[in-house]
Amino acid sequence: MRLLAVPPGPSRILVLGISAVATVVALSSTYVLTRAQDEDPAPRTERNYANLPPDDFGGPVTLTPAPSSSASPSASSTSSVRPSPGATPRTRSSDPANRSGDRPTGQEPREGEPLGSPPPGAGSPGPRDTGVPPKKKLRTHRGDLIIRTPGQVVDGLEVHGRIQVEAPNVTIRNTLVIVPTGSETAGISNNNDRGAGMLVSNVEVRAENAAPGVNGVVGHDFTLQNSEVHHVTDQVHITGSNVTVRDNWFHDNYHFESDPYQDGGASHDDSIQIIGGSNITIADNRFTGAYNAGVQITQSIGDVSDVTIRDNLLGGGGCTVNVAEKSRGPIRGVEIRDNRFLSDQRIDGCAIIHPSSTKISHSGNVWDDTGRPVTLTRG
Fold it and tell me: Which three-class secondary structure state does DSSP give residue 378?
């Protein structure tokens, strides 16, 4: 490039003026481009609260009225609960002064564990790493949430009701669900043909009162992780395929000697019950407090296959893992490996029971207190 010499005079002043204007325009263009790269003109879905009622975060939902007081269990139904020091659900104040969701002073729910639950083992999920993070502020919502928006994110709610997912790829996180009692129900459910891909993360679910028929999370095609489910009958009820349950803390099941949903017999409370489906993984969870089984596999509504149970701390139940065929024939692809078993079964030493026709792939399972290998029981 050749630089042209401009002699002094009006021509030189004109050239310098044009050069200065060009420089300003160039700098302005650079600033505009830089600003455009920094800005995010489209807010993230989970931050768009425009369609929500004042008490809710997370996205558009369909609201149904809160259950009336007449739905509360009768005194006779609650009096048959199996006595236990940990049998009373933990409560949080919900008076108007606390509607912002702040945990009341002196009522932090994660200071220690409920009575009746042994302390977490090393590396096990427990109060420090499951459920709603301690400093998360919650907004109170009263009534059921029916979610019908695909991809919706629900974040930071204290729900006094149930969450029903009827759209694909919904996320529920950092949320406390207090489930109303008085009927057979679930705290969170996608048990329909529209709610596949549900993710539940860092959630706490418990029943409002000691009453039969209340389960924690029910459905299929979902992932449940880093959550605490307690003071319900079954923490997780799996009704179909493609389910992952990992890094959760399940404890303090309700057990009733007379349960109307068992024709007046005793409750069949399990930490997890699988009644149909395939491609199911249960990993890195902690189970205590179930009376019937820690993991109960049946084929009540359909065939079960390809179930992996690994790297858990497992306890509770008559036998902790109970595999039953329910006249549907052998269950294929059951793998149980690298778990630690507590010695709290009602049937001494019954960690895993299964029919001889169902073959179990079984390795690396030990008793937590002794490190000795766990053996299978035929039933």
Answer: strand
List the end-to-end C-alpha distance of the chain, in Å, as a whole number.
92
CB 310 within 8 A of CB 335: yes
Strand extents, DSSP E, 33-138:
62-64
The answer to whether the beta carbons of residues 16 and 10 sit under 8 Å apart is no
Over the stretch 343-374, which tens digit does the pLDDT of each residue have? 999 999 999 999 999 999 999 999 999 999 99
Query: Of 213, 262, 270, which Cα lies nearest the Cα of 245?
Result: 270
What's the Cα-to-Cα distance from 186 to each of 115, 170, 266, 288, rounded to whole Å? 24, 17, 19, 20
User: Which two three-digit tokens encode residue 48?
Assistant: 């768009």
Look at the block and give the residue holding tokens 């975060």: 57
3-state secondary structure of 97: helix
Coil, strand or helix at 322? strand
pLDDT digits (tens, 9 = 90+) for 305-350: 999 999 999 999 999 999 999 999 999 999 999 999 999 999 999 9
Half-sphere exposure of 121 (CA within 13 A, CB side): 18
Domain boundaries, the chain: 58-68+125-378
